Amino acid sequence: MHEWSIVHSLLDEAERCARSRGAHAVHGLHVRLGALSGVEARLLETAYAIFRAGTICAGAWLEIEPVPARWACPLCRVELAPESGLCCARCDAIARLESGDEIVLARIEMEVADEPAPRGAGAGEVV
Ligand SMILES: [Zn+2]
Q1: Global pTM?
Q2: Is 24 in contact with 113 (CB distance < 8 Å)?
Q3: How far apart are CA 25 and CA 54, in angstroms?
Q4: What angle do CA 112, 115, 116 make, to 5 degrees?
Q5: Contacts for 18 with CB less than 8 Å, ≥ 6 apart
Q6: How far is the CA of 1 from the centre of ligand 1 (A)?
Q7: CA of residue 82 to ligand 1 center, whole Å
Q8: Region 102-110: what's the mean pLDDT?
Q9: How far is the CA of 38 from the centre of ligand 1 (A)?
Q10: Cα of 83 to ligand 1 centre, how many Å?
Q11: Domains of the chain
Q12: What is the per-residue pLDDT for 123?
């Protein structure tokens, strides 16, 4: 299932991000999901509920923000309604997809320890 591999890479990205900032817990993930991404939000939620177990996101919520498809004329730069037949009324150019096919991990809510490191201050913190 397509959604499973997407969840897998979302979790990977969240974990990498959390580690790089020294977070010890992730509270939630905010994902922008395009209407034309080919991914169903419901299936994504189901896959997430299964795969988050045992990861740093085990207790984290998943919020999915649907992103509608937006088309525009590549020449006039005007936005075109989907009902326009995806051709520009002014110049007849074929519309180009501006947004709506993305799957983006837009925000991660995490808890970062603000206590100073117990020993070896600054050790290993190479970014
Ligand atoms: Zn045009």
Answers
A1: 0.78
A2: yes
A3: 12
A4: 115
A5: 26, 56, 108, 110
A6: 38
A7: 14
A8: 96
A9: 27
A10: 15
A11: 2-68+100-112 (3.30.2320.50)
A12: 42
Classify 81 as helix, strand or coil.
Answer: coil
CA 52, CA 54: separation in Å to the nearest integer? 6
Residue 97 phi, psi (nearest 5): -75, 120
Tell me which residue has tokens 């509270």: 27
CB-CB contact of 99 with 106 (8 Å): no
| CA–centroid distance, residue 94 to ligand 1 (Å) | 8
Angle of the 2-20 helix axis to the 41-51 helix axis, nearest 10: 60
Position 67 scores a pLDDT of 96
3-class DSSP assignment, residue 28? strand
Instruction: Find the 101 Cα to ligand 1 centroid distance in Å.
Output: 21
Which residue bears the tokens 């977070």? 23
Of 15-24, 66-75, 80-89, which range is least confident?
80-89
User: How much distance in Å is there from the Cα of 72 to the middle of ligand 1?
Assistant: 8
CA neighbor of 25 nearest in space, from 122, 104, 111: 111
Q: How far is the CA of 91 from the centre of ligand 1 (A)?
A: 4
Tell me if 104 sits within 8 A of 32, measured CB to CB. yes
